[in-house]
Structure formats: C-alpha cells, structure tokens
Amino acid sequence: SAGLELSVNNHAADFTLSTELGPPISLSCHVYNSNQAEELLWYRGDGQVGLKDGNKVNISNICISPVNESDNGVTFTCKLARDKSVQVSVTLDIQFPPRLSGEETLHVEEDKDVTLSCNSKSNPQAQTSWQKDNQSLTLQQNHHELYQTSEVFQLSIKKVQKSDSGTYTCVVQSRLGSGTKDFHLIVEDKKPGFPKEAVIAAVVVVTITVLFGIVARKDKIFKVW
C-alpha cells in the first residue's frame, strides 16, 4: 500500500465538516495512486458501516440522512481494507439552536431548597441567564447557586422564603436562535412539626407506665412461670 492515498470530499487529511440540521450529508472516499482494485471500508466511530456491492471499490459513498443532533461530534472514517492504517476521518460539527420552551409550576415549603433546571443543549453553546418577574435576577451569596454543563443550566435556591415567590425565566441565546422556559415558584407556609420534647416525654411516660404495670403484676407473672 506504499504510495496509496485516500481522500474524503477532496480532503487528504482528517478534517471537520460543519453544517446545520436539515439537508443530508454525502461523504465520498477515493483511492489515489493505485494500479489495482482497492476495497474501501467505512466506520462510524468504532462501528463498521454496511456497504452495498458496487460501492466498495476505489470509490465509496455514504449518506447521513436525516442529520440530527445526535450526529454532532461523530467521526466517520474511510479505510483501505488491506491496510487500515491508510485512512481519512471526518468529524461532524452539527450546529443547531437551543430547543427550550414551556413552563412549570413548583410548590415549595418555606425554608426548603429548590432547584430549577432547563435543558440548554445547543451548538455552538448558547449564552444563558436567569430572570425573575421579567427582570434580571440578582444573585445572593449563600442563597442562589448556578450550575451549568453543555446541556443543563440550573438555578438552586437555598431555604426559600416568601419573597422568593414569583416567575423565574431561563433564557438561552445563540446566534442560531433562542429559547426560554418559565418556572412559577410558589412558596407555601411552613408545616408545623411535632415538638421533639413532647414526643420524648410521651415515650418516657409510656415506658414508665409499662414498667409499673409489670412490677404490680410480678407475683402473678412469677406464679405462671
């Protein structure tokens, strides 16, 4: 295979192909500097792509259709069958806008923690922000916490108070588009709990009562045994 070369879409070296959602993508692999029939192989990541007869020798074409978000970052590689070290790879850069919409209502008891989470997946990665009642949210230290990955944008509120009630909006913006999601946060009155002291006192009273009952009937108990 010395001197043999491959090209994919006229690229003789590994490259990245940028495109948007929608039209299918065609990849064409060619063999150069060969004086015989050469079989070609295609791989999607580590998995081999099935090719029909007539689409394997010297020239091989594959089509990705429909192109969707799951294709982003996937690498397709064309290899020479008898020497897999001769290869060219193309990595797909599928660009798509954030897909974020809808609303959600959350009821939270006062002094509890709550987390608002929205899917911010997009390519290129979007700019994200939070609003409260249509105004930029002012973050308070030890009260608000932000967490973000390439796919998730979260706002956590620690020990919510009545003043935290309102509509929170997750805003995600990229050059390809934008999206929002509303969270209607309703902070409810704190539910009264059982006083620990009263519970402990009740347990002690019951225990003492049982013990006195056993002592009072000890003669009959011993007589049975």
UniProtKB/TrEMBL annotation:
TM regions (residue ranges): 198-216
PROSITE patterns hit by this protein: IG_LIKE (PS50835)
GO biological process, one term: cell-cell adhesion
Key words, A-Z: Disulfide bond, Glycoprotein, Immunoglobulin domain, Membrane, Transmembrane, Transmembrane helix
Ranges of residues in domain Ig-like: 22-89, 98-188
Signal peptide from the UniProt entry: none
Membrane topology: Single-pass type I membrane protein
Keyword Repressor attributed: no
Lineage: superkingdom: Eukaryota
Molecular function as annotated in GO: cell adhesion molecule binding
GO cellular component terms, A-Z: cell-cell junction; plasma membrane
SUPFAM superfamilies: Immunoglobulin (SSF48726)
Protein location: Membrane
Cross-referenced Pfam families: I-set (PF07679), ig (PF00047)
PANTHER family, per database record: IRREGULAR CHIASM C-ROUGHEST PROTEIN-RELATED, NEPHRIN
Protein name: TMIG1 protein
Organism: Pardalotus punctatus
